[in-house]
């Protein structure tokens, strides 16, 4: 039973990591990125901030065109 709880916990942690996105804190930045080595972040003049997807959507709303292909 304890092993099952541990397994669920690890799965939840894994999901949380999948939702991690990266933001440039510069005033021109309006997108969030899937990876912190995206070409859209090369010109970022400030620190790159790691956050989760929901927080990023609340701040910037748009997904990076390089990271997210439709
Ligand atoms: Zn990107």
UniProtKB/TrEMBL annotation:
What is the protein's given name?
Lipoprotein
Source organism of this protein record: Lacibacter cauensis
């Amino acid at each position: 039973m304890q092993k099952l709880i541990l397994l669920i916990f690890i799965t939840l942690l894994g999901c949380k990591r999948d939702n991690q996105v990266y933001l440039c804190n510069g005033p021109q930045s309006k997108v969030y990125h899937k990876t912190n080595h995206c070409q859209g972040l090369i010109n970022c003049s400030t620190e790159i901030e790691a956050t989760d997807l929901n927080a990023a959507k609340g701040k910037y709303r748009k997904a990076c065109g390089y990271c997210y292909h439709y």
